[in-house]
Amino acid sequence: MFTNQDAGYDEIREGVRTLCQRFPGDYWRELDRRSAYPTEFVDALTEAGYLAALIPVEYGGAGLDLRVGCVILETIQRMGCNGGACHAQMYTMGTLLRHGSDAQKQKYLTEIAAGTLRLQAFGVSEPTCGTDTTRIETSAVRDGDDYIVTGQKTWISRAEHSDLMLLLARTTPREEAAKPTAGMSVFLVDLRDETAGSVTIRPLETMMNHSTTEVFFDGTRVPAANRIGEEGQGFRYILDGMNAERILIAAECVGDARYFVERATEYANEREVFGRPIGKNQGVQFPIAQAHMKAEAAALMVEKAATRFDAGEPCGAEANMAKYLAAAASWEAADMCMQTFGGFGFSTEYDIERKFRETRLYQVAPISTNLILSHVATHVLGLPKSF
């Protein structure tokens, strides 16, 4: 386990790369066939200390910053693995570390760092509200020392493989709140607590193996001690988690883009048609070069966003732009790589089609590209709101 706060990025990157080499393409292809969770991979990351990278040293973590988290996840994707199986354990730290109480941190972070507890689920999305988070309907009503939670969350990844969920629920109905973003609170829900009431988790079949579910709360009791921060201020708290999520996923997209560029370059040098390598043709060269440049430009935006986050500076615009640019770069690189491989790109044994499906997700999640464009247009450029 690494604990040196001054550890260089190269050392961390090499450690992650070495670990990922134990999980080659056939490992991920077999999981895909069974729609199975990569337990062995997640356990290895946990044992090596990478999933506790952002947890402070006093709780057993490495005490490193978000930029290191970006290095870890970018390297995982670049090696052809899938950090989506466990990345929530990093980005939920944005909410828990900044707004959780000392008692909550002591109770949960120590076990998370030790690998005996998983915080892998982020419960925000609902079937009826899409990206309009202010219209969530899941409610949490105070009842003595508990809250009674009722409602439904959807597109929640890893709920079946998580002990805890970071949940956003309404403690004041929207129509009674001072403003749409008020009246929401954040809770740590212990999904293992069978005495708390009904929590039903149903898997959803999707185009990629992402352990996606919908979660139903039917009068579930959550201790008031598990509420993070003040009641009604949850939207503000959750933004830290969302910004961290967007920055870390942007780093993953950069890793994907680099993976596709490297695989396409290797294949273009080796594959011969008409008696010469296809990489000798500018029609093959130029798309690879373009994808490379866009990936490297996106990486700079990710670095800027992560640096602002670590400094405690406002970074909503930068987090959104990093996610947009990196997702665009990874998707363009994926399409380019499929085109370079031609028919072989559709064969599962090359892993290109698997990574192609995985990176397509980030045009839509965790925030759609259209909503990012709207955010930049209105909040950065000052254009009138369209909704």
What does this protein structure show overall?
- This protein is α+β, with helices and mostly antiparallel strands.
- It is 47% helix and 16% strand.
- It has helices at residues 9-20, 25-34, 39-47, 66-78, 88-91, 93-99, 102-114, 234-270, 282-310, 316-341, 352-360, 369-380, and strands at 119-123, 139-143, 146-157, 164-170, 184-190, 198-203, 212-223, 227-228, 272-273, 276-277.
- The strands form 3 sheets. The chain has a 4-stranded mixed sheet with strand order 1-4-5-8. A 4-stranded antiparallel sheet has the order 2-3-7-6, with no helix packed on it. A two-stranded antiparallel sheet has the order 9-10.
- Helix 9 (282-310) runs antiparallel to helix 10 (316-341).
- The protein is globular.
- The chain starts with 8 loop residues before the first helix and ends in a 7-residue tail after the last helix.
- The model is unreliable at 1-7 (pLDDT under 50).
